[in-house]
Amino acid sequence: xxxxxxxxxxxxxxxxxxxxxxxxxxxxxxxxxxxxxxxxxxxxxxxxxxxxxxxxxxxxxxx
Length: 63
Fold this sequence. Notes:
Blueprint: H1 9-20, H2 33-52, H3 54-59
């Protein structure tokens, strides 16, 4: 007996939300490993910016 594969987020969540809104789901602009790389780069840049401004955002109080 072959088991059905697990649905991905696109099928399980995004597709249902799109159908509920009366639209069809479309393919993403960036697919595969390139999408993961884009998330990695965005996380690195965001972490650097947050780390650079951490003290001025969370520690030091302005009088």
